[in-house]
Amino acid sequence: MRIGVPSEIKNNENRVAMTPAGVLNLVASGHEVYIQTGAGEGSGFADEEYEQAGGSIVESAAQAWSMDMVMKVKEPLPEEFIYFHEGLILFTYLHLAPEPELTKALTDNKVVAIAYETVQLPNRTLPLLTPMSEVAGRMAAQIGAQFLEKPKGGMGILLGGVPGVKRGKVTIIGGGVVGTNAAKIAMGLGADVTIIDLNPERLRQLDDIFGAEINTLISNPLNIALAVAESDLVIGGVLIPGARAPKLVTEEMIKSMKPGSVIVDVAIDQGGIFETVDRITTHDNPTYEKHGVLHYAVANMPGAVPRTSTIALTNVTVPYALQIANKGYSKACLDNEALLQGINTLNGYVTYRAVAEAHGLEYKEAGFLLSTM
Ligand SMILES: NC(=O)C1=CN([C@@H]2O[C@H](COP(=O)(O)OP(=O)(O)OC[C@H]3O[C@@H](n4cnc5c(N)ncnc54)[C@H](O)[C@@H]3O)[C@@H](O)[C@H]2O)C=CC1
Ligand SMILES: CC(=O)C(=O)O
């Protein structure tokens, strides 16, 4: 199979979908990999390293997009829709629930769109989302701590306090991968941390992991309102796979926070959990202020630490790319239920139920479509 790897074009997105090690793997199995010149630079991978691994460098995005399968990191932006065509296999993060135009472009052009974030193992975990959630979760606590500093617009507190001065309060809504990693760093900084989750079993696990060092609360509007009101930093890490994130933190709750508090909406890639987050922000201009609270809503947080993120991401994506390349997408997905869960659009249909529901579109089961093709 011929695999194309274009450069990422989102603001400050320095990750790339393939490392030279990944190229070596695919080439060793008889595939051809075409990398757009300079695509790996932001992650510290030079064109020559890809060539030494057996890949070919192409000059333009159009050339990289002209292959049988395109591997990317972030969802395509409107200027990339011109490259869509029938039968193209697109393997990348897509986050389609909050993206009606992208969903339409993929179905109109009959792209086989396999979303990293909905590839799901039988134990319900999301192996291609997890490493980036680990990165973003850890970053969320660091970023929150930074923006609480006065010169960054915050109220001017140190999360860990000092002897004789109270520690800062951090509430994390969603105790999955983002939440757990945010908690680790926030606790490491010395903050007073509360995690809120809907799943009591998850709260038990968190209690076992962190013990008395952490507060856990079941998710309901009252607990969220009380915790948000007394927090200096609130981090949103809720996910219902494939679906638009629920708005759990209302405008009234944001108004109840102290001036100079900070919210970090990590779940913004699925639409975000804060009612007052009305736009996606960028690494260039990461925050805005509303009701005196600093709002951070960058949808590609790991793009700021591309060396770590690219390696962590490709560690998990390349084995799945190999299955698709070796068997063809149809057999690979029929043989591997986890990969089948990744198909979001196929033959002009939306094949992920939560995405179809988000846009009021007809849903078709990918397995059924593939077995009748
Ligand atoms: N902004 C960025 O750059 C990045 C964003 N993300 C996003 O972060 C979000 C979280 O991802 P993960 O932690 O990997 O998901 P996860 O599936 O590991 O965790 C989600 C947690 O949310 C909980 N939850 C569901 N409904 C809830 C509710 N009503 N109240 C409280 N908790 C609830 C679940 O029980 C689960 O524990 C996703 O939207 C993901 O795409 C991930 C990486 C980077
Ligand atoms: C998961 C995601 O959206 C990211 O890593 O950018």
From TrEMBL:
Gene Ontology molecular function terms on file: alanine dehydrogenase activity; nucleotide binding
Record: active site: 95 (proton donor/acceptor), 269 (proton donor/acceptor)
The UniProt record lists the keyword Oxidoreductase: yes
Domain Alanine dehydrogenase/pyridine nucleotide transhydrogenase NAD(H)-binding: 148-297
A cellular-component GO term for this protein: plasma membrane
The protein's enzyme class: oxidoreductase
EC number: 1.4.1.1
Family under the similarity heading: Belongs to the AlaDH/PNT family.
Name used for this protein in its record: Alanine dehydrogenase
